[in-house]
């Protein structure tokens, strides 16, 4: 029972921290204003790792690769902690853990896409004038706009969030299958 509680707490903590690194990269790619309170909070929580990583991993192509590497390192530490807690040799599991960490980052990214899209869709129905809508729109527009170009509005109803959520869930299933296959290898 204690092991289950420990694994649960590790999963929550590392998932939230990994998501912070991914959200930092996403907000920079979406050009969210740096003085946004959420942007500043995430920057303060992740600066300790991102700033030193930027000396080694430069950003290019509009992507903050130091934040992406920070998310991957978070996934790697989480994976190695789980391996150590299970009694398996950490060095023996290191090669597989590198791939599992990359798949964890992909999983966290897809989960963020689902949650941010869902929150944006619900907020657009409840209170489209809310202060957070600018941030949510800036984050979701690059994902929803290509779907909106393909899928026409149906009587004022925007189905693009539903399509994005379904596609992200399908991608999550594929990532779960890949993780399972990697662990069996």
TrEMBL record:
GO terms for cellular component: membrane. Pfam families: CCB3_YggT. The chain crosses the membrane at residues 6-26, 69-94, 101-123, 159-183. InterPro entries: CCB3/YggT. Keywords: Membrane, Transmembrane, Transmembrane helix. It comes from the Bacteria. This is YggT family protein.
């Amino acid at each position: 029972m204690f092991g289950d509680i420990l694994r649960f707490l590790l999963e929550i903590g590392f998932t939230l921290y990994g998501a912070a690194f991914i959200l930092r990269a996403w907000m920079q790619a979406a050009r969210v204003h740096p003085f946004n309170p959420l942007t500043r909070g995430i920057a303060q929580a992740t600066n300790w790792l991102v700033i030193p990583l930027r000396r080694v991993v430069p950003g290019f192509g509009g992507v903050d690769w130091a934040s992406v590497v920070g998310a991957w390192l978070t996934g790697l530490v989480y994976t190695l902690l789980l391996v150590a807690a299970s009694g398996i040799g950490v060095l023996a599991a290191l090669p597989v853990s590198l791939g599992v960490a990359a798949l964890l980052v992909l999983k966290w990214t897809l989960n963020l896409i689902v949650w941010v899209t869902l929150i944006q869709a619900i907020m657009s129905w409840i209170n489209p004038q809310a202060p957070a809508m600018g941030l949510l729109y800036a984050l979701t527009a690059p994902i929803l706009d290509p779907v909106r170009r393909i899928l026409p509005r149906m009587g004022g109803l925007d189905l693009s969030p539903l399509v994005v959520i379904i596609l992200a869930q399908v991608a999550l299933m594929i990532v779960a299958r890949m993780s399972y296959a990697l662990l069996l290898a």
